[in-house]
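Example record for the data management plan.
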Amino acid sequence: MFSRRALLGGLAAAGSLAASGASAKLFNVDKRRVETFTLSNGLQVVVLPSNRAPIVNQLLIYKVGGADEVFGKTGIAHFLEHMMFKGTGTVGAGDFSRIVAKHGGRDNAYTSYDTTGYYQIVSPDRLEMVMRMEADRMNGLVISEKELVPERQVILEERRMRLENSPGALLGEAVQEQLFGRKKPYGMPIIGYVEDIKKLTVNDLTAFYRKWYAPNNAVLIVAGDTTGDQVRKFAEKFYGPIPQRKLEPRRRPNEGAGDLPQKVARADARVAEPRWGRNYLAPSYFKGETQHAYALQVLARLVGGGETSRLWKVLVDERKLALSVGAGYSPQSLGLTTFDFGAHPAPGVAMADIETAVADQQARLLDQGVTAAEVERAQNALLAAAIYSQDSLQSGPRLYGSLLGIGGTVADIDAWPQRIGAVTPDAVVAAARAVWKPERLVTSLLMPQEGMR
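Corresponding structural encoding:
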C-alpha cells in the first residue's frame, strides 16, 4: 500500500473540548501521556499508554520513502514494503500476516514519500510475539528471486488498479511531476514507473534494505493497553541486539520545478464527474518558509475546510457553481509540500467559471484580510479534529510516526495546539501571500472525453 502523504491534518495530544480560562474561546487540549526512550543502538521508542480497550498497536516507522529514490529505480521503497512480508530465516514467506491473523490480530504496511510504516494491532498478550517478529524482519529479511518475480506482478497490478484505471490518479501523477520535476523527489510516483518496476532486481532491493533498514533509522511506537516498562523490556530483548548502521543524510531540494506556472489537463471517457484543481508549492515544517506552516493549516481550514468555509459558502451555497469545493495542506514533509484547491463543477458550469470564482475569493482574502472570528473557528475545528483522532488506536500512533519519521520531536507534537492557537489573522494573510503566487502554481483539469467546455 502506498500513500502520497503520511497523514493530512494537524498534530495534537489527546484532550477535552472545554474552553480554557486563558483563551476563553479556544478549545483546551490536554497533553497526552507519552513515554519515550532510545535504545543503545539508536532505536527511538515511543509508548502511548491507554487502557480504554484491551488492544495494542505496534507501529514501526522507517525514515525512508519514495522521495529517497533515484530516477531509474523508482518504486523501490514500495516494492521493499511488499517484500518485507516474504519471509526471514525463521518466518516463512507469507507467514507473518497469517500468524498475526491466527492470533486474532491484523497487520498492514504503507509507503509514503518520506516514511515507510509497518503495524500490527493485537491483544496485549500478543505484543511480545509481534515485537519479536517485527524485529526479526528488521535484520533478517530474505529477498529471493522466487518471491520477487510473482510480487512484481502484484505491484504492477496494484499500479494498474490504483493509478492507470483512475483518471484522477493519473492526473495527480502528472501534477506532481509538473510541481516538483519529473526526475526529482516528490515528482516521481511512490509506486514507481512501470519500466522501473519491471527492472528492479534482488540486488537492488537488498542494497536498499541494507542502506535504510536499521534501528538508528527507525521509530517504534506502541500504543494501547500496555506500559512503558513492558515495552522497554520487549524492545531491549528483541530490537536491542540489532546493530546500528552508518546512515547517509536525506536530501530534499529547496525548490520545485523551474517552469511554473503550468496547466495539466486530462480528458478520459471514464470520467463521470469533471474536477478542477489548483496546487501551489508550499513550505513544510522543515523546508521553505517554515514560519508559515501553522498559519497555512488555519488558512486551509478557513478558506476551504468544509461546508462552513469561504469557498463553500460562495461557490456551492450562494452561486451554485460547484457541487463541492475544498482546500488542503499538510506540513508533515521532509521537503516542500503543497497547498491544494479542488472543486467539482455543477452541471453546465465551465471550468473557467470555477477558476475565476476561486481566484476572486483568493484576491478578496489577500485584499481584505480575514476576521478574528473566522480564524478562531478554523483553529477550533483543527483542535477538535486532532482531539478526536486520538481516540483511534491507528491514527494516533500514525500522527506521531508521520512527524517523528521526518525529524520532528514529541515536544513539537505537544506544542502543536499552542502554536495553532497563536496564529493571528495577519499571519494567515501573510502565509497566503507567500504561497499563492503564479511561479508556484499548477492548475489541473479532469474532464470527460469530449473535453473542456
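Summary line stored alongside the record: Residues 4-24 have pLDDT under 50 and may be disordered.
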